[in-house]
Write a structure and sequence with these properties.
Number of strands: 28
Radius of gyration: 19 Å
Oligomer: single chain
Shape: globular
Strand order of the largest sheet: 11-12-13-14-28-24-23-18-21
CATH class: Mainly Beta
């Protein structure tokens, strides 16, 4: 079942919230602005507990207010704001120096979407003209969030264009499973990857893969995050903002798991990479509703095709042929 409420207004336009609850009492709330995944509330013995970082509408309206939002057309970083299409350069608008980040200044996360709610899902749709986001070809896009009675959330993305284009979306949810105002240092994380992409200070990945074994980036078996992050505090990043290379894997096996006490999230994806970001430099400039903003207040785990596929097809194919429908799914399983 779902409920529909007015959440507030942004730029003199009402923002609508959709809340779906399954038979177990698990709740998901979504917003039509940004097609945002606003909250995931698990039932506990003391009541419902939200395990996502969320903010107010002013925070979501910020250019970097990616919290719980879909990222597209192409998530991650495209170096020098440029694609190669049919052997020719295609310039893109940049929004991080010379880099195009998370779809650029007019990516999915910045847009209003048309919502179609149902009992267990909400589908957000819209057309994104090339003249708006700067990518080749007008894109007809959809993002569908489904809450199942087996305590899973599925996010299904589709995209199609009359011209050749690119398509590599994900979601930028931040997780903190603590009932109280604590950081993720007490969380246990597993990432099913033995390698991560080398990246210079620009964070645009190279083709070179680094072995994580025995380093603070090693989560091949479940590890508490606090000691790993402590070992990285003297690095320029002060934590993790890295692309893990999953490679080929069984789609029924999680690419990552996150646990804290009785609460857990399993992440499933058929794609070959996972962005892991530990909110290393968050500070007072951000405002969250249930947690104080500070370093390591949340962790984002973003499955996608390796961003390096933009320039090297050895790491995946994110191109869409004219008229082809691209599809991608993220799946989350919750335990509590």
């Amino acid at each position: 079942m779902y409920t529909k409420t007015t959440f507030g207004s942004l730029a003199n336009r009402p923002v609508t919230a959709y809340t779906i609850e399954n038979i177990n009492g698990l709740r998901m709330t979504l917003l039509d602005y940004g097609a945002t995944w606003y909250a995931l509330e698990v039932p506990t013995h003391t009541g419902h507990q939200n395990i996502m970082l969320n903010t107010d509408l002013a925070g979501y309206a910020e250019p970097t207010g990616y919290f719980g939002k879909p990222l597209g057309r192409v998530a991650g970083r495209i170096g020098e704001g440029q694609l190669m299409m049919n052997g020719k350069p295609w310039p893109l608008p940049a929004n991080e120096g010379t880099t195009t980040l998370h779809g650029g200044p007019h990516g999915y996360s910045t847009l209003w979407w048309q919502a179609a709610p149902a009992n267990d899902q909400v589908t957000f749709t819209r057309t994104i003209p090339s003249s708006l986001d700067g990518f080749p070809g007008d894109l007809t896009a959809s993002v569908t969030y489904t809450l199942t009675d087996s305590d899973e959330v599925h996010i299904d993305f589709t995209g199609t264009s009359p011209e050749e284009t690119v398509f590599n979306p994900t979601n930028h949810a931040y997780w903190n499973l603590n009932a109280t105002d604590e950081t993720i240092g007490n969380h246990e994380l597993m990432v099913a990857a033995q390698q991560r992409f080398e990246a210079p200070l620009s964070k645009v990945p190279t083709d070179h893969l680094l072995d994580v074994t025995g380093t603070p980036f090693d989560f091949t078996t479940p590890r508490q995050m606090g000691p790993q992050l402590a070992a990285l505090r003297d690095t320029p990043e002060r934590g993790i903002d890295d692309i893990y290379y999953i490679g080929e894997h069984d789609a029924d096996q999680p690419v990552a798991t996150l646990r804290c006490g009785d609460l857990g999230v399993e992440f499933y994806s058929k794609r070959n990479a996972l962005i892991l970001f530990t909110a290393n430099k968050f500070g007072d400039e951000l405002h969250f509703l249930e947690k104080k903003s500070r370093p390591y207040v949340g962790v984002a785990l973003e499955p996608q095709t390796a961003p390096r596929a933009v320039v090297n097809p050895d790491f995946g194919d994110i191109r869409l042929a004219p008229g082809e429908t691209g599809q991608a799914q993220l799946r989350y399983h919750f335990t509590y």
